């Protein structure tokens, strides 16, 4: 073949998928296990979606060990491991309005209803934690880990003042698992990094990494010096609690147990309500005392949530609507300036 093109080789989908999985698994390890990511979230999200698209186009290449089918990463052996009574899943993401429209339509079609009521709340940019209370006493707290097995970080969680060690109510539930996020407030993060600099120690890339690194210390005395905050956003197993028929009612119940919950939580009707909330929280974002990377929409009715169920790594009844990444914004601004 004299006139064959020069050796331009395109990787087969199989090779591309393998390379993407290896890359994403490495980023997962750096982010979830080492608390030390090497790329911005926007780059990670881009590769993740590329892998999802390839697997969608080539379903025969989809395997259960793909990062698109799994949550987080394996927990560190240095901590005792905790089997979650109920899996701690991730969330599917929507980055564009079209994806959100499709999410709302899927739900309306599956439930056969014209309009859905959603519970809406900020998406805290920290790390997922479950707290277990027995008869009102805090007995254990764990990280999400791979969704099924997490790390026992109870001693470290005891140093967080916002987390009640005893639920201050007359008739506490027999057993309750509170799901939420540990994070560091922006002002505490700035202060911590100033201190780190003064001591000539490594600076944290952002409040999320500072929170994760601080909570996953083997020595709780170190965690005790780090100002961490907790917000509850859901329930796992719950025994001996009042009948809770909506997510909003569950959040009000958690608030009544004096667990910190978001003031920005709300309930809205249909797609228009979601978009309005996204704009509202987007405008409030710079003034919030903590980082958020989007908002979360959940079908409010628990009966409807149960009807919708789960797929591999995330519930069908919820989605995280992400804000554009800061670095992506900067790129757009830079282009604007050039034009
Ligand atoms: P996610 O952060 O996109 O969403 C799920 C998590 O959101 C839950 O586990 C929970 O912890 C949290 N959350 C916050 N507020 C919530 C609320 N109100 N209700 C319910 N959940 C709430 O998913 P993930 O699987 O934890 O992480 C994936 C993301 O992490 C990626 O999209 C990327 O942004 C980032 N990441 C980055 C790297 C990197 O190398 N930069 C590596 C891995 C992951």
Automatic annotation (TrEMBL):
Binding site for NAD(+): 41-45, 90-91, 121, 144, 181, 298, 322
Superkingdom of the source species: Bacteria
Positions of transmembrane segments: none
Residue positions of the active site: 123 (n6-amp-lysine intermediate)
Family of the protein in this entry: Belongs to the NAD-dependent DNA ligase family. LigA subfamily.
Role noted for this protein: DNA ligase that catalyzes the formation of phosphodiester linkages between 5'-phosphoryl and 3'-hydroxyl groups in double-stranded DNA using NAD as a coenzyme and as the energy source for the reaction. It is essential for DNA replication and repair of damaged DNA.
Protein name per its UniProtKB record: DNA ligase
């Amino acid at each position: 073949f004299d006139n064959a093109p020069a050796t331009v080789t395109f990787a087969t989908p199989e090779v591309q998928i393998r390379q993407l999985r290896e890359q994403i698994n490495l980023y997962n390890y750096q982010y979830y296990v080492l608390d030390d990511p090497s790329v911005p979230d926007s780059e990670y999200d881009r590769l993740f979606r590329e892998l999802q698209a390839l697997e969608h186009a080539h379903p025969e290449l989809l395997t259960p060990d793909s990062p698109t089918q799994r949550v987080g990463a394996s927990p560190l052996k240095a901590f005792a491991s905790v089997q979650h009574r109920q899996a701690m899943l991730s969330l599917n993401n929507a980055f564009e309005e079209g994806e959100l429209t499709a999410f709302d339509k899927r739900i309306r079609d599956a439930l056969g209803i014209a309009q859905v009521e959603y519970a809406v709340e900020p998406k805290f940019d920290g790390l997922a934690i479950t707290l277990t209370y027995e008869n009102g006493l805090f007995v254990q707290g764990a990280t999400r880990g791979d969704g099924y097995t997490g790390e026992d970080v109870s001693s470290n969680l005891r140093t967080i003042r916002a987390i009640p060690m005893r639920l201050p109510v007359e008739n506490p539930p027999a057993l309750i698992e509170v799901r939420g996020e540990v994070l560091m407030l922006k002002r505490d993060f700035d202060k911590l990094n100033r201190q780190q600099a003064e001591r000539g120690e490594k600076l944290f890339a952002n409040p999320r990494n500072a929170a994760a690194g601080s909570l996953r210390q083997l020595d709780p005395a170190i965690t005790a010096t780090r100002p961490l905050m907790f917000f509850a956003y859901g329930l796992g197993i719950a025994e001996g609690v009042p009948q809770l028929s909506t997510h909003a009612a569950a959040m009000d119940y958690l608030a009544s147990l004096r667990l910190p919950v978001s003031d920005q939580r709300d309930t809205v009707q249909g797609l228009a309500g979601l978009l309005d909330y996204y704009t509202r929280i987007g405008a409030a974002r710079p003034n919030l005392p903590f980082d958020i990377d989007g908002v979360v929409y959940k079908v409010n009715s628990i009966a409807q949530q149960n009807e919708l169920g789960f797929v591999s790594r995330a519930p069908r009844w919820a989605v995280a609507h992400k804000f554009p990444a800061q670095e992506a914004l900067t790129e757009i601004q830079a282009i604007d300036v050039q034009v």
